[in-house]
Amino acid sequence: MSTHKGRGEFVDDIPGIRRILKNNSRIAVVGLSANWYRPSYFAAKYLKDHGYRIFPVNPKYSTILDLPCYPDLHSIPEPIDVVDLFQRSERVEPFVEQAIEIGTRVIWMQLGVVNDTATKRAIESGIDVVMDRCMKIEHARLFGGLNLFGVTTGIISSHRPETLRQGSDRQ
Amino acid sequence: MSDRKFGVETLCLHAGQLPDASTGARAVPIYQTAAYVFDDADHAASLFNLQTFGNVYSRLMNPTNAVLEERIATLENGRGGLALGSGMAAQMVALLTLLENGDELVAASTLYGGSYSQFDVTFRRMGIDTRFVNPDDPENFRRAITPATRALYAETIGNPLNNVLDIQAVADIAHDAGIPLVIDNTFATPYLCRPIDHGADIVVHSATKFIGGHGTSIGGLLIDSGKFPWDNGNFPSMTEPSAGYHGVRFHETFGDFGYVMKARMETLRTLGPSLSPFNAFLFLQGLETLPVRMDRHNSNALDVARHLQAHPYVEWVKYPGLENSPYFDLASRYLPKGAGGIMTFGIRGGRDAGVRFIESVQFLSHLANVGDAKTLVIHPASTTHRQLSDEDQIKAGVSGDMIRISVGLESIEDILWDLDQALSSACG
Ligand SMILES: Cc1ncc(COP(=O)(O)O)c(C=O)c1O
User: Fold this and answer.
1) Cα angle B214-B338-B139, degrees, rounded to a multiple of 5
2) What CATH class has B8-286?
3) How many CB atoms lie within 10 A of CB A103?
4) Which of these, A15, A70, B238, B251, has the minimum number of CB atoms within 10 Å of its CB?
């Protein structure tokens, strides 16, 4: 969610990530693979199953996960809330430029993807940035799932777990 | 903005648990179920493919166990935890997730006897060779490493010698060789020492001991630091498609918790040493009070050590919290809150006096365990190590005059009174 001051934020804490996952629903997944055992496929399938609208972006395919696959961000016929980047760190900058051009609200760089120049550029353009985190893992961490596998969530609270925005966790 | 770093006492009570979503129950519910329903065929497929996180079958995961797993992982400053049916199972699962036929392990020679046998007999039979080294000189680990070595293994505080490991030095040697350091942190607990903060990559526990603190249950825990670079070329089973789980690549798919996922989905799933959710519940009850119990174990043990050191019927005392211990400096560095509840001492009059002492205690319990809220005593030469020859007993550091005490939480005056009267009966 971009701030109204015209600058984006680098988001790295629980309230910020929770807000991004709750307030956005259209996700372009750049570099999504059609192989079911690739991490990008795991993440996109998970997010689709949890109520997000997924827009695969990969020039190599025409459909993935029974969804139309687009060659680049400009080809997507709808506004996009989050651009989720499965790209090597040194190759994200052109996609960040495209993301700025299509007016996305958030750029999310996946686990292992780190690029400070691209982050700075996105924030100056009013886009919020998450870096070096997996969207699926963060969703499961903050809205349930990861805890079932004994993985640390960092959540300390005496309130019942927050349920998902879609009302149901499956479409 | 950054998320708050909570204190260890808070984490012992809260980490890993939110009030139950459907009932609001504040205590951790015991989910005594073998299996969990699927919503539909696609949901089942996603669960089996690990594309979504959810419950399938309690050999693999259980919501009560999961609270214990996340709590211990948080306390150890790790990324993920796994609960197992015993301490022995925890170390077996930790190591068999990494080692294959033809691989080698380098381990401290001063390990708990059961651990020594697991590596020396059972693992050897499986084609995994262990080289045992004296851990007092960390360089001994380096000297024993070969191209086949895939892990180093040691205890924070050795059982029963009470030797303290220079964890950071051994971790550096492991990392120079591109392999992980696995630490058994049973005697210290995460309240006294967090091996991961000193470079350890994997931590295991016998939860049976101080974590439970009540001596009611057998259990074990495994913690993944999340820091080891599994893609360094030495661990193809972490990076290549898994033969043991549908071709998943654990490191790439789960990132910094890939190792503990592999331990769960390959090793635990196929070997099967799961922890019962009822026992997980009991360990959670124990963990809630770990900090206050360990503080009292520390102070009672130091009082006992000083008392015995000045006692006419006692020849020597080995407790790393004593200034004259050769491990005092290491204990000050790695165990700043105290050296724990366990010590050994030598009784005047040797083996026979040792037997008489054990038979003379009134409320101290003669049994083969440590880390209970009750004070426990044992004479290893006539019990746990009785099968060994005199020579092998000496090698294992067990002399005929040696008594081990796990100092409990009774009134300190009463503990000292029972020790004194038993020493008088044995030696007077
Ligand atoms: C240091 C140490 N590690 C491991 C174990 C094995 O644990 P368990 O008895 O829970 O299998 C013990 C048990 O005595 C121990 O003292």
Assistant:
1) 110
2) alpha beta
3) 12
4) A15
Question: Where are chain A's structural domains?
Answer: 14-149
DSSP character string of B25-41: -SSPP----SB---SSH
Instruction: Give the distance (Å) from ligand 1 centre to CA of residue B423.
Output: 28
Q: Please enumerate, as own/partner, the contacts of B32-40 that have beta carbons within 8 Å and a separation of 24 or more.
A: B32/B277, B32/B278, B33/B58, B33/B62, B34/B58, B39/A170
Note the ipTM here: 0.91
Distance CA B224, CA B181 (A): 11
Residue B212 Cβ < 6 Å to ligand 1 = no
B290-427 has which CATH code?
A: 3.90.1150.10
Q: Which helix (H) or strand (E) holds A155?
A: none
Determine whether the shortest distance from the Cβ of B372 to ligand 1 is under 6 A. no
Q: What is the pLDDT of residues B176-229, one digit of tens each?
A: 999 999 999 999 999 999 999 999 999 999 999 999 999 999 999 999 999 999
**Which CATH architecture group holds A14-149?**
3-Layer(aba) Sandwich (3.40)
Strands B314-318 and A26-30: unpaired
* pTM (2 d.p.): 0.94
The residue behind tokens 């119990």 is B293
